[in-house]
Amino acid sequence: MTSMPDRSRTVLLLNGPNLNLLGTRDPAQYGTTTLEEVERRVTDLGGELGVRVVCAQSNSEGEMVDRIHGARGWAGVVLNPGAYAHYSIALRDAIEAVEVPVVEVHISNVYARERFRHTSVTAPVAAGYVAGCGVFGYELALRAVLRRDAEREEVSDGTRAG
Ligand code: CA2
């Protein structure tokens, strides 16, 4: 008999527009690691930390909104919104609505780049923010999601971990 995956022990890794090209172009900005490899590393880390990681990438804003909605009741979301971070109110609203910790990741140091990348409309409603750490940032973000999720559990249980 197969058992249903535990939604509360599942994390969504969601990458936005153009991140399917990771590792194939512009290595100076984004490195040489492919998206497939990033997904493998985060999934492996999830396994070590006791969570299932569901990976998705989309170039479409609406599909990303739907994916975030689908993570309701999960442990959280590791999200690289790509360029949508800089202007998508729809993604911001989805992050607020889903009520799970969403940690925003940018591979590059957006603050060392063009001015329009210095604004994130999604960061103020995210549970955390990682930028400029390369693809290692995704692993940091997964750990941060799980920490935030554990803190939420503590608050709802009335317990407090050390
Ligand atoms: O640094 C990041 O992770 C970004 O989210 C990447 C976005 C950019 O618009 C954000 O300002 C910062 C762009 C993703 C494009 O990805 C590519 C990867 C390889 C080759 C070409 C594009």
Task: Break the fold down into its secondary structure elements and pairings.
Layout (H helix, E strand, L loop, with lengths): L9 E6 L11 H4 L4 H15 L2 E6 L3 H10 L5 E5 L8 H10 L3 E5 L21 E4 L4 H22 L5
Parallel strand pairs: 1-2, 1-3, 3-4, 4-5
Helix pairs in contact: 2-5, 3-4
Unreliable stretches covering 5 or more consecutive residues: none
- Classify the fold: give the CATH topology: Rossmann fold
The CATH fourth-level homologous superfamily:
Dehydroquinase, class II
| Spatial order of the strands forming the largest sheet | 2-1-3-4-5
- The CATH class: Alpha Beta
Shape: globular
Descriptive report:
It contains five helices and five strands. The chain is an alpha/beta fold. It has one domain (7-154): Dehydroquinase, class II (Rossmann fold). It has a five-stranded parallel beta sheet, sandwiched between helices. The longest helix has 22 residues, at 136-157. It is globular and about 45 Å long. The chain starts with 9 loop residues before the first strand and ends in a 5-residue tail after the last helix. The structure holds ligand CA2. Ligand CA2 binds next to loops.
In short:
This protein is α/β, with parallel strands linked by helices. Helix content is 38%, strand content 16%. The protein contains five helices and five strands.
